[in-house]
Every structure is written in structure tokens, then in C-alpha cells.
Amino acid sequence: MTIHPRQKRLLDEVRRHGTALVDDLARQLGVTPQTIRRDIGQLVEAGLLNRFHGGAALPQSTTENIAYLQRVSINARGKQAIARALAAQIPNGSSLFINIGTTTEEVARALLHHRELRVVTNNLNVAAILADNTHCEVIVAGGVVRSRDRGIVGESAVDFIRQFKVDIGLIGISSIELDGSLRDFDVREVKVAQAIIAHSRSVWLAADQSKFGRQAMVQLATLSQIDVLFTDAEPPAALARMLHESGGRYVVAH
User: Fold this and answer.
1) Where, residue-wise, is CATH 3.40.50.1360 in the chain?
2) Of 88, 126, 159, 197, which residue has the fewest beta carbons closer than 10 angstroms?
3) What is the pLDDT of residues 54-78, one digit of tens each?
4) Distance (Å, whole) CA 35 – CA 134
5) What CA–CA distance (Å, rounded) separates 79 from 73?
């Protein structure tokens, strides 16, 4: 296909961040969301982009995640909105698991003024953030530290998590496929997250809209295992229906 200047600018924006939302692209390029959707459709047909619910991304592997620093910048405003909405529903005096992810790190920042929290985490970034809250006790899992994002994985981390039973298990995710499967890229990370789900009285998932319809290799859980989904856009109808049927709910943050 022949790429006209607006589509080239659209591609450049997606390449800069790895992913982009329709509304953001429309605002940056000064056109309507309908025009952006049409451009994305043509670029998807040409194999230059992948479409997800509400936006577009570079064609990605199902076996390797986007680099950490790139993920930090993806839909940062949406992740911050999710973090504020989620933190507002966590009572003081709660016990929490918080796992690996850029959205869960935003939640940690939103918890800096909570009191009497006890947080168990396999994320050194979360531990460093919450260490500034003198009214929060932070317990860090042992295991192998991944240099790329300071996540802690491995059997030692799994065994550590299994010692606890907490009020809320907060997890992030790389992929929510439209069949309701929750997926990620590292089987070691997945095993820790599965232990978190098994040892939480309530399971909360923090996932921005770029995760809807994305693909990854390793299944972590299904949407039916989630009590509350916090996101920044209405989920696809099939996912909303699955949550309702399993007794879960979702919160759209703005």
C-alpha cells in the first residue's frame, strides 16, 4: 500500500511507544477517531500494525514482552487513572499481594497515603515505592531478580507467597484474550501470580485497555477467577459478560 503522510505520522507515534490509543492519536494528528480507525484498519491489512480494543500496536511476538521502559510509557494516563480508582477501594489496615507490572507500580504510588497496610510483593519497584510510606509494612519475596524490571521469580518466590493468606491479591497482566484467558510471557512469573491468586481472599486485576485482545504465550488464569477488574475503558462485551456470569465486576477509571 502507499502510506500517506498522516498514516506515516500515526506509525511513527506507535513505533515511539510500542502502542497507542485511538483517542490519543486523533488528538495528536488533529482528525476524528473514525479517521484514525480507518487508517489503522488499512495499516493492519498491510501487516504494519496489530489492532487491539481501542488502539493499535506494533506487530508483537507472543513469546516476548515489550521492553520495560517502553511499557512504562504506554497509556501512562490510563494506568494512573486505574491506580487512583483501585487505591480508593482499598481500606486502611488491609493486607495485600502486589505482583509484577507497570500498572501495579502505579497502584503502589497511589497507596502512599494509606495507613496500616501490610504488603507482600515480588516486585522490587513496588517495595521501593511503598518503603516511603512509614505507615506501611512491606514484605519482599525471595527468589531470582530479573534485571530488566526488578521482578522476583522462581520457586523460592512461589514458596514464600504460599506462607500467607491476604485480603486482596492485586495482579497485573500482559494479555486478556477474548476467550477470557489471562496470559503472560514468563512461566516463572506466571507461577508466582498463580500462587497469589490461590492465597488471596479477593483477587483484583489491574489492566489498561491495551491488554484486551493482546496475545501472549503462557496462561496464568481465566477471567472467572477475578473478583474485580480495574481498567480504563469499557471491556469488550464478551469479557464483560464472562465477568458478570462468574460473579465478578469491573470498574472503569477516568
Assistant:
1) 69-252
2) 88
3) 888 877 655 556 667 767 777 788 9
4) 49
5) 10
